[in-house]
């Protein structure tokens, strides 16, 4: 008990002393006093300021100190080789040995480049490579030096590569050193050996990566080495992948191949393909044989190959020759595109759109895929067209359009949007407007003409004669005038933006130049941009859209010609920053653009005002014109069914009028919301005594007939209605029967 009491007493005394000391300290400096808080804040600010300035000085002096240290070490190192010789000669000049070393290295380079020097070094290497341990050091150091050698023939690193490593969403930069073929039962696979350094250049890991999954950036070998050595500090702000171009004598897989040849025989071309291009895909031999059988004066044959990324279109091009005795017929083309559409002939109809003349190789047939529940039949539905590959060096559009056709055919009656489009729109898809440019991998066509500068232009005099146009331009112009499209989009590459008219200005200035339907075009462009994965978030273009003239003016473009002469609202869609992305990125680009493309096509049904125009007397359809008050632009109803489809921006009130010479104008006011509206017009003739069988003729033909009748019969009654006819464009040709064959007009 005594010991316990003692311990308790001691503990109490100690606690008492501590409490007393704390009390004294609290009296000396109250913890919550204002002076104490101010002092601590000042100390913290001063300490932070001193630390930052000290670190700034270290950051500034560190590279300077390292540079001087390394330079001084190099000078002393090289100076030590020849300075003893100069000391024996009594010459003591600092740096003379270093200068002599540089001169010596220079002459060694000259000697090594000669035949004799190469022989001497080859003999030296022969001895070194037979010495244990030393040969490994020499081989490794030589590989590193060869990687940065200016002689590209000896480059150990073939290309800079970016691979997904170590997990999804992360990337590693390395170098392609070699390629290897992995032979498996289900097919061979081309792999690339990618060296990824982990400690400067001499320690790293080697990965075998599928050649199509490698991203090849636009970086040289030296730039890649600088990035590694500088631990990423010399990394450029932007990196864009480039399309891989095979080097001389390099073997590439079939799904990356495009052959362009001139006068070779079929068997010689086949032999060259199998010998120089196919070392992993021997099972493609049958597809090659089938394609080469049809290489004749039509010069094009297609073959489909399935890959994990996307189905590729392979083009084999050769000049005509008599030895094969075969021609690529229309049935062959039909069969190929039927295969592409996966056999959905009930949903897609192939319409021959163009036959353009290729200067050297004969004729190339181009085809349009029409997707509708009633393809090839004229209906009171809006028509939409997609055109891809206008520029030969922008091929992404052709891949996307083939994917679009496949998706619509696969998802009809399964997906609501696909069903809506197929049932209510006549969708025409031209995957490649410029296959010659694609084959030659250049912007222009076979004559090296930019097709998007070849159309008649509103601001500058350009010959409207079709004979002066390129074959592709003539075919597109004739096609658009014949089909009566409501809206359209052409797919390009090199940027990410939705472009709308006008594309040019009268004074050739770079400024915003709005067309009459500027609001409607902005609505269409924003619809595409907002449905896109990231177009609307563009930092260069507000909301991901731009007026063409405000971006950069062009003249002779297809977009403006569609609007002026074709009555078609066309957008120019730049769908990929990279014109030639790697094959493994095509599926991603398709996913980014799929919803935008579908929403744009569906907009011709979901928005705007639609309807038909009839005569009140005999009920015949009338191909009248539709005008909107305040908008200086009219569209014309179709000739046979008299249906019209006018795109308008929602959220406004419009006065819609139907006009036709010989009939009273009818107008109505509508409030345009987010949904489409239907407005039919019934027009009354201004002169009820006209024969009923004349009402189903177009106004221009009727007026032409009346103008050819004797003046006393016509009188002054028809003069006011002849004025609209005289203002018709000269390119609208009219075929009239002779006067004596016309039916008499009853009084």
TrEMBL record:
Pfam families: DUF502, Peptidase_M14
GO molecular function: metallocarboxypeptidase activity; zinc ion binding
PROSITE patterns cross-referenced by the UniProt entry: CARBOXYPEPT_ZN_1, CARBOXYPEPT_ZN_2, PEPTIDASE_M14
Keyword Zinc annotated: yes
UniProt family annotation: Belongs to the peptidase M14 family.
Domain Peptidase M14: 326-604
Active site residues of this protein: 574 (proton donor/acceptor)
Protein keywords: Membrane, Metal-binding, Transmembrane, Transmembrane helix, Zinc
Cofactor: Zn(2+)
Higher taxonomy: Eukaryota, Viridiplantae, Streptophyta, Embryophyta, Tracheophyta
Name of this protein: Peptidase M14 domain-containing protein
Matches recorded under CDD domains: M14_CP_plant, Peptidase_M14NE-CP-C_like
Cellular component, GO annotation: Golgi apparatus
Species assigned in the record: Mikania micrantha
Residues annotated as transmembrane: 54-75, 95-123
Source species, domain of life: Eukaryota
GO annotation, biological process: proteolysis
Keyword Iron-sulfur: no
